[in-house]
Specification:
The chain is of the alpha+beta class. It is built from four helices and three strands; from the N terminus they run αβααββα.
C-alpha cells in the first residue's frame, strides 16, 4: 500500500467558507488573485487549495458586493495584475463571516462530541 501524497490529503473547501478565507487573507493587505490563492494554501499547511475557477468568480462577486476594491498594478513578477483590498464594508463583513464560522464550528463540534 502506498502512502497518500500531500495533494491527496487536501481538503475540499466547504461551501460558504471561500468568502471568509478571501476576506481574512486580504485583512493582511492587498494582494492579486494568485497571491491570495498561495496565501490560503500556505496558511492552511498546504491543505486548502483554491482553484482559479472558484477564486476569480468569488473575487468579482465580493467586489460587486462592495466588500473589495480592485486596482491594476504591476506584480512582483513585473506583470500587470489586479490587486484586491478590503473596503470598510469588507472589514465589517469579515467580522460577520468569522462569527458565522465560529457558530458552525460549535454546531459541528456538538454533533461530533455530544455532552
Amino acid at each position: 500500500m502506498t502512502e497518500p501524497t500531500q495533494y491527496q490529503n487536501r481538503i475540499e473547501i466547504l461551501q460558504g467558507t471561500l468568502d471568509l478565507l478571501i476576506l481574512q487573507t486580504l485583512a493582511r493587505g492587498a494582494k492579486h488573485g494568485h497571491a491570495i490563492s498561495q496565501a490560503i494554501r500556505a496558511r492552511s499547511g498546504e491543505l486548502l487549495s483554491v482553484e482559479t475557477g472558484s477564486l476569480y468568480p468569488a473575487l468579482h462577486r465580493l467586489e460587486k458586493k462592495g466588500w473589495l476594491d480592485a486596482e491594476w498594478k504591476v506584480s512582483e513578477n513585473n506583470q500587470r495584475a489586479k490587486y484586491y483590498a478590503l473596503t470598510k464594508a469588507g472589514k465589517k463583513q469579515l467580522v460577520a463571516e468569522q462569527d458565522r464560522w465560529r457558530l458552525q464550528v460549535e454546531a459541528v463540534s456538538g454533533v461530533l462530541d455530544p455532552a
